[in-house]
Amino acid sequence: VLSQLLKHTVMVAIDYCLACWTSDAISVKAEPELKNCSHSENFNHSPYSKVFSILCCLGIVLCLVTSIAVEWTGLKVTKKLHSSLLNKIILAPMRFFETTPLGSILNRFSADCNTIDQHIPATLECLSRSTLLCVSALAVISYVTPMFLIALVPLAIMCYFIQKYFRVASRDLQQLDDSTQLPLLSHFSETVEGLTTIRAFRYEAKFRQKLLEYTDSNNIASLFLTAANRWLEEYIGACVVLIAAVTSITSCLYSKLSSGLVGLGLTYALMVSNYLNWMVRNLADMEIQLGAVKRINGLLKTEAENYEGLL
């Protein structure tokens, strides 16, 4: 979190430096024209280029540090969970294997461990990045045009209710996807184990048809989940752009706001829609993917075999 905060602070500083650089360069070139003077001063770009170069190098280093920190943390957590789960399953009593489907155990070691290993760290980084980008964009727009704060409150309330509705639908669809994946894995493992018996009674077509039905059910759930993840609230971003554009142009006309800051505010306003979309989607994805940790944590509560009294 600290590395993300530092990185996005530097990113905002880079954009602000460019805005000031542009405004000062335009003002120096426009000043002789306002005074009806033919002699124009040469603008010194050296201080701005040095500051801009230092900030860019610092931003690159912080991006690298952030990526390493997230991946290292995710790898450490994954190794700890997988080791604990393996020890619990190895020492589990026989009644556990008699009452728990083999597909469920395989799903914990395959799909859930893969989710924790590959998806959760990336989603966590995207969530923190999109959240900080959205906050920094709104902060820059509010700094450039303080009138934007008046319209920010209803927009925030609207976005809250939309993401609340989206997260519930996305979580339910993910649970449906998981519930249809378990019978598919169980049927596949049972088919492989009883392949000799299936061939002896010539039930190949029956088991193949059953496998295709389970696959279709799982694909339907996955299709609806993918379609739900594409559901975006574009009109909120359009409202932000409209309000920011109107307030920025009004401030530029009546308050003599510099053109560089107006361009900075409009640039961030155009990106707010994308930041909001990714923030809501990543928040829903994180809530879904943490279900893998919850399921593994459920198996970690399995009591080990009791060897007391045995020789």
Automatic annotation (TrEMBL):
Keyword Ligase on entry: no
Transmembrane residue ranges: 51-70, 137-163, 235-254, 261-280
The ABC transmembrane type-1 domain, residue ranges: 1-287
GO cellular component: membrane
Keyword tRNA-binding applies: no
Keywords: ATP-binding, Membrane, Nucleotide-binding, Transmembrane, Transmembrane helix, Transport
MF annotations from Gene Ontology: ABC-type transporter activity; ATP binding
Annotated Pfam families: ABC_membrane
PANTHER family, A to Z: ATP-BINDING CASSETTE SUB-FAMILY C, ATP-BINDING CASSETTE SUB-FAMILY C MEMBER 8
Protein's recorded name: ATP-binding cassette sub-family C member 8
Source organism (scientific name): Pelecanus crispus (Dalmatian pelican)
